[in-house]
Specification:
Number of helices: 7
Helix content: under 10%
Pfam families: CarbopepD_reg_2 (PF13715), Plug (PF07715), TonB_dep_Rec_b-barrel (PF00593)
CATH topology of the largest domain: Maltoporin, Chain A
Keywords: Cell outer membrane, Ion transport, Iron, Iron transport, Membrane, Receptor, Signal, TonB box, Transmembrane, Transmembrane beta strand, Transport
Main location: membrane
Mean pLDDT: 89
Number of strands: 46
Family: Belongs to the TonB-dependent receptor family.
Protein name: TonB-dependent receptor
CATH class of the largest domain: Mainly Beta
Distance between the termini: 59 Å
CATH architecture of the largest domain: Beta Barrel
C-alpha cells in the first residue's frame, strides 16, 4: 500500500506542478470608487495589466507559488502585497492618496482637504458622468448643498445660472486647473462658452463661503475648483450620444493613447450640442474640443491643454413678461419670447449671441523632494464675439448721428440692427510651492499674476431707412485693461488630534476703463484696490472617521464693470467686505457619511440693486452698510443595503439687510420726472435668497450594473428685489395689473421638482462598456419659474412693476448611449 501511494504521488506531481491559477480583483480609492486604468503587475514572470472601467483586473495562467503584486495609479501611493497562490485568488486593494502627486499640486494648492475647517463637496468623474446628458455645468452641481440653478432656455442647455447660498455667479470663484475662469470685468463665469466641459473633467470641488485662498474673483458665496482630465495608463475611445426633448442632441467623441513609452499621453474630445429650448426661439448651437498632451518624468509632469468652445444662441435672456405669463388665453404664455419681434409680426432671425473662447494652459508640476513640490502654469485665453439685436424705431441721435433730411422729411428714428462686440485677451501665470517638512506640518505658498485687455465696441449693420449711416458704422468703443496680482501663504499644523489652519492672502487690482468724470465727460479712468484676506481655523479629530471644526475668514470683492462705467467718482460704489464664520461636524463611515455646517456671513458695503438712479441717470447697484446670511447646512449619504442608498442635503437660512433705503423713479401723468419715491426698510430679505434649499437622491440597483435614481429638489420662495414684496406707503397698485399676481407679487414661488434617472452598463467581447441612460426631468410636470427680474416705477402716483420670469420646462427627457472601447 505504501509503495502504491508513493507511485500515485509521483504520477500526480507533474499535473500539480502544471496547474494554472489566476489573481483577480478590484482596485478602488479609500471611498470605494473604482480606479479604471490602474496598473497591476507581478514579477517572475514579469506581467502587468490595467483595470477596466469598473476597476477590475485579472492575471491568469499562473502556476502555484508566491507572488508580489504591485498596484500603481496617478495621485495614489504605490501599494505592494505578497500572496501565496494555491488556487484562484481574489485580491481587492484600496489605494490611499499620495503625499505628493505631480498632477495634484496645481489644484490642491487652492482646495480644502479632509480636515480643512470649511464646508466643501467633492465630485468625482463618476459623479459627473452619471448626470452628464448634455446640460450645462451648473446642472451637474444641482444636488450639492445650498445650490440653486436656472436656465434661460428652460431646459438646461444654453445660458444657465448658478447661485450658492443666494450669491450669484459673479460672487462664485471658478478655476480650471487653478486658472481663473471668471470674466475679469463682469466677474461672471459663462459655462456656455465651454460646452460639454464636464466630459473632460476629472473632479470638482465646490466650496461654500469664503473658503481657501484661490486665484481670480473673490469668493463671496462659494468657489468651484475644476480639474480636467489626468493620466490614464491605457488607451481608450468613447462615443457618447444623447437625444431628447426640444430636439436636443449631444454628440461626443473622446479618445486617448494611454501611456506611451512610459512617458507620453495624448487625450482628445470633440463635442456638439444642439437644442431648440423650451422657451420659444431659445435655440442653442454649441461646439467644443479639448486636447491634452502630457509628458511624465520620474518626478515631474508637463501638460499642455488646448480647449475651445463656440456658441450661437438665440437670445432668451429677457424672460417672459408678467402680463404674458399670467394670461392663459395666450397659447404659449409660458414659453413666449419677445426678443427680435419686428413691426410686421415676424422675428429677426439673427437675434443671436455669437461667441468663441480659446484656452491654452501649460501646466508644470515638479516633485523636488519627498518634502517639497512645485507647480506652475502659464495660460492664455482669447475670447471674441458679439450679440446681434433688432432695435425698433431707434433714435439716430442715440448713436452719435445727426438726423438726416430727405425731401420734406427729417429721419430722426429708424428700425436698425446692431452688433455689440467683445474682443478680449486674458493671460498670466499661477504658481504653488508645497512644503511638508514633517508629517504633521504642511505649508503652501501660492499666487498668480493675470492681465486682461478687453475691447468693447458696437456696429450698426442694417437700417430700414437711409439715415446717413455708413456700412458697419461703429458708434462706440471702450477699451479696458485690468491686472490682478495675488499671493497667499497657507499652513496646517497637526498637534495630536488638533489641526490648526492659517491662510493669508494679499490681492492687488488695477483697472482702467472708459467712464464718467465729475463733469460727466466720458474719459479713460482707473482704479486701484488692495485687499487683505486672512483666514484661520481649527479642526479636532474625534477619531479616524469623525471631526469637528470652526473657522473665520475675510473676503473682499471689487465692483464690476458696470459699477465703474455707469458712475462718476462721486457716485462710484465701494468694494464689498465679508466676514465669514463657519463651524461644523463631519463623519465618514461604511454606512453613513455626511456632516452639518453652521455659517454666519456678515457683509459690509454689500452691493445690491436699489432702484435708484445715479448722477449719470443709470440704474446701478448701491452699497448697503450691513447685511448678513446665517444658516445651517446638512448633507449626507446612507447605505441602507448593498443595493439601496439615500443621499440628501438641506440648507435653512435667514438672509437680511439690516437697513435699506430704496428709491423709485417717479413721473407725473404726462411722464415728466418727479422727485423719487423713497422707501425705508428694517431687516428686509436679500433678493434671490431662499430660506430653504433641499435636495435628495434615492438610488436603487435592482441588477448588477443597473440603477434607478429618484432625484428631488425643493427651493422655497425667493424675492426678486430687496423689499420683501412691500409696496410704498401711500402708493396705489396699477389697476390694470391688480389681478395679475405675477405683477403684484415680486417673488418666485417655491417649487418642488422631481427627476428620474435610469442607467445600465454591460460589455461585449468587442466593446469594453455599453452604457444606456435615461433622464426624465420634472417627471410630475411642475410649472415653475427659477429666475426673474423686476423694474418698478411710480407713474402719476401709481406703482407699476415690470416683472419678467424664466419658466422652466415641464416634463422632458434625455436618453443617452455610451460606447467605450
Amino acid at each position: 500500500m505504501k509503495n502504491l501511494f508513493t507511485a500515485l504521488i509521483a504520477l500526480l506531481l507533474p499535473v500539480l506542478a502544471s496547474a494554472q491559477f489566476s489573481i483577480s480583483g478590484k482596485i478602488t480609492n479609500q471611498a470605494g470608487e473604482a480606479l479604471p486604468g490602474a496598473t497591476v503587475s507581478i514579477t517572475s514572470p514579469a506581467i502587468n495589466t490595467q483595470t477596466d472601467v469598473r476597476g477590475s483586473y485579472q492575471i491568469a495562467g499562473l502556476p502555484g507559488g508566491t507572488y508580489t503584486v504591485k498596484v500603481s495609479y496617478i495621485g495614489y501611493q504605490v501599494t505592494t502585497q505578497t500572496i501565496t497562490l494555491k488556487g484562484n485568488h481574489t485580491l481587492n486593494i484600496a489605494l490611499t492618496n499620495a503625499t505628493f502627486s505631480a498632477e495634484e499640486v496645481t489644484v490642491t494648492a487652492t482646495r480644502a482637504g479632509k480636515n480643512s475647517p470649511t464646508a466643501f463637496t467633492n465630485l468625482s468623474k463618476k459623479d459627473l458622468q452619471k448626470n452628464n446628458f448634455g446640460q450645462d455645468m451648473p446642472y451637474l452641481l444641482n444636488q450639492t448643498p445650498s445650490v440653486v440653478v436656472s436656465s434661460d432656455a428652460g431646459a438646461g442647455v444654453g445660458y444657465t445660472g448658478i447661485r450658492i447660498r443666494g450669491s450669484d455667479g459673479t460672487r462664485v470663484n471658478v478655476t480650471v486647473n487653478g486658472i481663473p475662469l471668471n470674466d475679469a470685468e463682469s466677474q461672471g463665469s459663462f459655462f456656455i462658452n465651454l460646452p460639454d466641459l464636464a466630459s473632460s473633467v476629472n473632479n470638482i470641488q465646490v466650496q461654500r463661503g469664503v473658503g481657501t485662498s484661490t486665484n481670480g474673483a473673490g469668493a463671496f458665496g462659494g468657489s468651484i475648483n475644476i480639474q480636467t482630465a489626468t493620466r490614464r495608463d491605457t488607451g481608450f475611445a468613447e462615443i457618447n450620444t444623447t437625444a431628447g426633448s426640444y430636439n436636443t442632441i449631444k454628440n461626443t467623441v473622446s479618445m486617448g493613447t494611454g501611456l506611451l513609452g512610459g512617458h507620453f499621453s495624448v487625450d482628445g474630445r470633440l463635442s456638439r450640442i444642439k437644442s431648440d429650448g423650451y422657451i420659444d426661439r431659445a435655440s442653442s448651437d454649441l461646439k467644443s474640443f479639448f486636447v491634452s498632451g502630457a509628458y511624465y518624468g520620474k518626478s515631474s509632469t508637463l501638460r499642455l491643454n488646448v480647449f475651445s468652445g463656440i456658441e450661437r444662441t438665440y437670445q432668451a435672456w429677457n424672460g417672459v413678461p408678467d402680463t404674458v405669463i399670467n394670461n392663459n388665453s395666450i397659447p404659449n404664455n409660458r414659453t413666449y419670447n419677445e426678443l427680435g419681434l419686428m413691426p410686421d409680426g415676424s422675428y429677426y432671425k439673427d437675434q443671436v449671441d455669437n461667441y468663441q473662447q480659446n484656452h491654452y494652459q501649460l501646466l508644470y508640476d515638479q516633485k523636488l523632494s519627498d518634502k517639497l513640490s512645485f507647480s506652475g502654469a502659464l495660460h492664455y485665453t482669447k475670447g471674441f464675439g458679439y450679440y446681434e439685436e433688432f432695435k425698433k424705431d431707434a433714435a439716430v441721435a442715440n448713436y452719435g448721428l445727426t438726423p438726416v433730411v430727405v425731401g420734406d422729411s427729417t429721419i430722426t428714428n429708424t428700425n436698425l440692427a446692431r452688433r455689440l462686440w467683445l474682443n478680449n485677451d486674458f493671460y498670466g501665470v499661477t504658481y504653488a510651492l508645497k512644503y511638508q517638512p514633517k508629517s504633521n506640518l504642511n505649508l503652501t505658498l501660492g499666487g498668480a499674476y493675470n492681465r486682461y485687455t478687453g475691447a468693447h465696441y458696437g456696429n450698426i449693420i442694417y437700417t430700414q431707412q437711409d439715415a446717413g449711416i455708413p456700412p458697419n458704422y461703429e458708434y462706440y468703443r471702450d477699451d479696458a485693461e485690468k491686472s490682478d496680482f495675488n499671493i497667499f501663504g497657507r499652513g496646517e499644523y497637526k498637534l495630536g488630534d488638533v489641526t490648526l489652519f492659517a491662510d493669508l492672502q494679499y490681492r492687488r487690482i488695477y483697472y482702467s476703463f472708459l467712464g464718467f468724470d465729475r463733469n460727466l465727460n466720458n474719459v479713460q479712468q482707473n482704479a486701484t484696490l488692495n485687499f487683505f484676506n486672512p483666514k484661520a481655523g481649527i479642526t479636532y479629530e474625534l477619531d479616524e472617521h469623525n471631526n469637528i471644526y470652526a473657522s473665520f475668514a475675510v473676503g473682499n470683492h471689487e465692483p464690476n464693470r458696470d459699477d465703474y462705467t455707469n458712475s462718476t467718482p462721486v457716485s462710484r460704489p465701494k468694494p464689498e467686505n465679508l466676514k465669514d464664520f463657519e463651524a461644523g461636524y463631519r463623519t465618514s463611515g461604511d454606512v453613513f457619511k455626511g456632516g452639518i455646517n453652521l455659517f454666519y456671513m456678515l457683509y459690509k458695503n454689500q452691493l445690491i440693486l436699489t432702484g435708484a438712479l445715479n448722477d449719470v441717470g443709470s440704474a446701478t447697484r448701491m452699497n448697503v452698510d450691513n447685511s448678513y446670511r446665517a444658516g445651517i447646512e446638512f448633507d449626507g449619504r446612507v447605505k441602507i443595503t448593498n443595493q439601496l442608498s439615500w443621499a440628501a442635503n438641506a440648507t435653512i437660512s435667514t438672509n437680511k439687510i439690516k437697513d435699506l433705503n430704496r428709491s423709485l423713479a417717479s413721473y407725473d401723468p404726462d411722464f415728466n420726472p418727479l422727485p423719487p419715491v423713497v422707501q425705508s426698510f428694517k431687516k428686509t430679505n436679500i433678493a434671490f435668497s431662499p430660506s430653504l434649499i433641499a435636495g435628495s437622491e434615492i438610488a436603487y440597483s435592482p441588477v448588477k450594473n443597473g440603477s434607478i435614481a429618484f432625484i428631488s429638489k425643493y427651493v422655497s420662495k425667493q424675492y426678486l428685489d430687496n423689499t420683501s414684496n412691500i409696496n410704498p406707503t401711500g402708493i396705489t397698485t396699477s389697476p390694470d395689473v391688480a389681478d395679475n399676481p405675477y405683477a403684484v407679487n415680486r417673488y418666485l414661488k417655491a417649487y418642488f421638482v422631481n427627476d428620474v434617472r435610469l442607467s445600465y452598463n454591460f460589455s461585449t467581447k468587442a466593446i469594453k462598456n455599453i452604457g444606456i441612460g435615461l433622464l426624465v426631468n420634472n417627471v410630475f410636470s411642475k410649472k415653475y419659474e427659477a429666475n426673474g427680474a423686476t423694474y418698478p416705477e411710480v407713474d402719476g402716483g401709481t406703482l407699476v412693476n415690470y416683472n419678467y420670469y424664466f419658466p422652466q420646462a415641464t416634463r422632458n427627457f434625455l436618453a443617452s448611449l455610451n460606447l467605450s472601447f
